[in-house]
Amino acid sequence: MTLEEQLAQLQNDYAQLEAKAASQAALIAQLIERIQTLEARLSQDSHNSSKPPSSDGFKRSPKKRSLRKSSGKKPGGQPGHEGQALKQSENPDTVIAHLPTTCEKCQTDLTKEAALPHFEPRQVFELPTQLKLHVTEHRTYSKKCPTCQTVTKAKFPQSVKNWVQYGPGFRALAVYLITYQLLPYARVCELLNEIYSESLSPGSLVNMIAECYEQLAEPEKTIKTALTQVKVLHCDETGLYVEGKRHWLHVASTPHLTHYAHHLRRGSKATDEIGILPAFQGAAIHDGWSNYLRYACTHGLCNAHHLRELAFVYEQLKQAWAAEFTTLLVDLKEEVEVARARSETSLSSARLAHFEERYQQLIAQGLAANPPPQGGWPCGKRGKPRQSKPKNLLDRLDKQRHQVLLFAYRFDVPFDNNLAERDIRMVKVQQKVSGCFRSQEGASFFCRIRGYLSTMKKQGENLLVALLDTFCGQPPLPKLLV
Fold this sequence. Notes:
Blueprint: H1 3-43, E1 142-144, E2 151-153, H2 168-179, H3 185-196, H4 202-215, H5 217-227, E3 232-242, E4 245-253, E5 258-263, H6 268-274, E6 283-286, H7 290-293, E7 298-301, H8 303-317, H9 320-341, H10 349-369, H11 389-399, H12 401-404, H13 406-409, H14 418-434, H15 440-458, H16 463-471
């Protein structure tokens, strides 16, 4: 073999080795990325992601630490706190007098002596000795007219439609136990049977729920109308299973109003059909999902989400800028709270400029630590290269900074969207109780009734009284607290 042939062979071998090394390097990069993704997934819990606390398990992670600063107050009730202790009744149902029979000093018989006017009362609050349903029989009689001899029969009240039926109070209690206390149908039947010795079928409960749903049509319209007029609206959505298929639960709420709706879609088709956001002109607080941003209202982002994402970047990826950004948001939140407590309506221009400058500096540090990815997808895939979680977070914080800091510019806007998340939580509990909603009607029944009860609870109303009035045909309308 000539020298030229040997050189060509070596060059060919070198090219093959170089190609093999490049292929292995690409494979190693993919494996490293996959390992990091899996490690990140394993390290996520409720404190550094949007996973619910119920997914954390029973082991408490040492990484979970509160961002709240100590108030310096002792645990428990504070001075001036109104207690909830049991208080004596001014009109007891039963009075039992305990009289001394003999003198405790000389043992003289006191049975015939009159008691002194002063006494010491102690009261025991107890259930009635026997719980039973109160049965009211309605009887219609007939009368014969002395003039024309016509026999006229009286009519039953409009609310008495069947030979035998449950009254509005009993139906209100059953609906309350199912839709607010979230007891399964079978357990409600068992509970009411144990208390009142009255056999009840799940089918009867379904009819009660359906009747309540029909009666609450007008109150639900009132709630939706009021929500379109509020200054600040909390919005959120979560997965919901209906008839074994994935649907979406949409909530729109304020501290005084709640509306639930389920839909097969998550996006604008659902929110347009629900009809609250298209007519809303105030400030919508949400988690930054793009569907909300298409509506022409003011937008504010939930910073509780940002704090969890920043905790992940700092704890798992060891990027210091994330911890500093967390401190920035918490410091700004505390300064807003202090200013609001002093009845101020805004921060000074100098303080806002100070925080905005810190904000920009930290964004620059984060972008320097997380440059945009180069090239396309590995293995010849088309499209833009996938960005890392920190880069996605930084892009949101950078491009939507006014929405992130809206709580500092407007004191009527909250720091987070926890209100909507709390309103959603109990519906998720209901789904865990039942597994899924068995029908479209059942999901609609629950959403309307639960939204009404949540609203009345926020407004300080007694829920059983509200349901009683509902079954009497006069459901109380919510106050329009906008």
